[in-house]
TrEMBL record:
Segments forming domain Methylated-DNA-[protein]-cysteine S-methyltransferase DNA binding: 71-151
EC number, UniProt record: 2.1.1.63
Name of protein: Methylated-DNA--protein-cysteine methyltransferase
Organism: Corticicoccus populi
GO molecular function: methylated-DNA-[protein]-cysteine S-methyltransferase activity
Protein family according to the UniProt entry: Belongs to the MGMT family.
Known role: Involved in the cellular defense against the biological effects of O6-methylguanine (O6-MeG) and O4-methylthymine (O4-MeT) in DNA. Repairs the methylated nucleobase in DNA by stoichiometrically transferring the methyl group to a cysteine residue in the enzyme. This is a suicide reaction: the enzyme is irreversibly inactivated.
Class of this enzyme: transferase
Any GO BP annotation: methylation
Domain of life, source organism: Bacteria
Active site residues according to the UniProt entry: 122
Keywords linked to the UniProt accession: Cytoplasm, DNA damage, DNA repair, Methyltransferase, Transferase
CDD domains per the UniProt record, alphabetical: ATase (cd06445)
C-alpha cells in the first residue's frame, strides 16, 4: 500500500492506494510521511481538490471496496456510494436498503468504519429527525461537506 498526505480546505487527508486503486481516504491532524506519488494518488488528489472547489460532483477515480471490511460493511459502503451529491438519507433508510430496519446500529458502525471518506459519502447519512448524527471526521467536517453540497440542515 502507498500513502500520501495532502492538505485541502477541510484539513489534512491521508490518501492510500493499492494495485492502482484508492483504498483509503482518512482525516489526519497533521501532515505525515508520504510515500512516492503514483498516478491514481495524483488523480484522486486532483478530483478531491475539484470537489472542494465546487467543480466536481462525481468521482471517477477507481476505488477498491473489497480491500477492507466485512461483506456487510462492503454492502453498506456500496450503498453509501450511490447517494447522490447534495442529497441525504437517514440511517434507518440505509439500514432498510442493507438488510432491514433493525440493522440501524450495524449500518451506523459500518458507516463509521468507511475507509473511503468523502468519495464514499458517509457524510450524507443523517438521523431520521434531520439532525446530523455522528461522523468519524467530526461534526464540523460533516457540516462543512454538507454545506459544500448545498444541503440545508434542520
Amino acid at each position: 500500500m502507498t500513502s500520501v498526505y495532502e492538505k485541502f480546505s477541510i484539513g489534512w487527508l491521508k490518501i492510500s492506494s493499492h494495485d492502482s486503486k484508492i483504498t483509503g481516504i482518512d482525516y489526519a491532524d497533521t501532515e505525515g510521511e508520504s510515500d512516492e506519488w503514483n498516478e491514481v494518488l495524483r488523480d484522486c488528489a486532483r478530483e478531491l481538490q475539484e470537489y472542494f472547489s465546487g467543480e466536481r460532483k462525481v468521482f471517477n477515480v477507481e476505488i477498491d471496496f473489497e480491500y477492507k471490511g466485512t461483506a456487510f460493511q462492503q454492502k453498506v459502503w456500496r450503498a453509501l456510494y450511490e447517494i447522490p451529491y447534495g442529497m441525504t438519507i437517514s440511517y434507518k433508510t440505509l439500514a432498510e436498503q442493507c438488510g432491514g430496519a433493525n440493522y440501524s446500529r450495524a449500518v451506523a458502525n459500518a458507516n463509521g468504519k468507511n475507509p473511503l471518506s468523502i468519495i464514499v459519502p458517509c457524510h450524507r447519512v443523517i438521523a431520521s429527525d434531520g439532525t446530523l448524527g455522528g461522523y468519524t471526521g467530526g461534526l464540523d467536517k460533516k457540516k462543512h461537506l454538507l454545506k459544500l453540497e448545498n444541503v440545508i440542515l434542520v
